[in-house]
# Entry
Amino acid sequence: MTTLFVDCSYLRDHAYLNTGIQRVVRSFLEQTEFLETKHGIKVIPVSISHGAFDVLDTADLYDKGPQDSPSVTKPSIKLRLHIYFENVYRTGRVFLDALFGNNERISKFLFAPRSTFGLGFIVDKIILDPLRFITGRKRKKKSISEESDPFSMINQDDILLLLDSTWYSDIWPSVKKFKEHGNKVVAVIYDLIPITHPQFCDDYLAEVFKKWFMASEGYVDGYIAISKTVRDDLKKFMDDCLPNKIDRDKFDYFYLGADFKHRDIEGQDIRVDLKNEYQKRPTYFIVSTIEPRKNHAYLLDAFDKLWEKGVDVNLFFVGRIGWKVDSFMARMQKHKQYNKRLFHWQNINDNELEYCYSHAKALLFPSFVEGFGLPIIESLEKKLPVIAGDTPIHREIGGDNIGYCDISNPEDLMNIIEDIEENGFGNVPMVDEQYRWLSWAESSDMLYEKIRKMG
# Structure
């Protein structure tokens, strides 16, 4: 029986994250039983950083921390402390790395996963382990003894899927050992933005991602992108950088799924303040990390014009704070409409996110560049109209089902929303009741079929 080992090295140490790639990894693993039944394979999540090959418990890839209980009106002191120290830790590492000139050895120490000696390991052992002991939440012991060879579980025809965002981790020693058994390695590519548009990214991410990607050519047997647009960009980049060396059959693409787990969301784990603001006036929202390429400033420019004209609408920013947005965050937090018609919601759970999709007037998605644009599909699945930036990837994913705005001109979006408020959705498509995108089961099946045929 073929085993599909799925790299979850980054998610294992960052289970509190619930956006983008983390949601993709979890959604794929939630299809384990389906994939095993249909294809007769075994699916196993693993951590592969710094020469390790450790089997993971899927439960460890979900957060069990304080943000699991956001039903109170205001975040608890515990949650606020959690967010505060998380931000201090993240920004502190980046600051120290820059202070020491991005020295390779120091960077490896600062960003090493908690399973390997480094800053995370020290913080885990000196601070977090005593807290777990005090609260009775001690870490589970490994089921496999540390003396055993973790690579001994690999058999002929097994496959390693690089699905996680392990650009900060040194995964290649583990990948090399895996390939020594004669097995196939396939990488999922979400986008090339850190290489093609580094101005939108954290400086360290741009550096480590390019190193990761260029190193991948020596280990990866095939690349599967999350859209045709990304696949074509990938082919072009590889042709430009490594001409006459790349087998064009190494490239393919699949599409992400969009279905949420079916659940009764009314009254469950949804902040009272969030629901109250939706009930006051029509609400338009964007869901994403606040970062330059998502173009949040464009939205605020457009809504400033709407509010000046007396259009009574809310603008919700849903997502955590990212990088290179200090000036924008200051602008937002000092805005006269902040916490009146302009809101920023962080650390929301899946129930709250689904509530946003179910109760908003429309999703706004004016990003400059994307690999896929998952919120577009999730909105359409919820029959929520979408207004996105007029870019090739949004055209590929949204087609004729969504409306488009000129992301170089905030007045264009202002006019679209003003027209919606006055006349309804005549010029922006309402979602057809028959619309249906791939489920995560279908998406995972599509991905595995591409993996199986590759190399």
Summary: Residues 65-76, 140-147, 262-267 have pLDDT under 50 and may be disordered. Residues 192 and 237 are 9 Å apart (CA to CA). The chain has two domains: 3-64+137-257+443-453, 272-423.
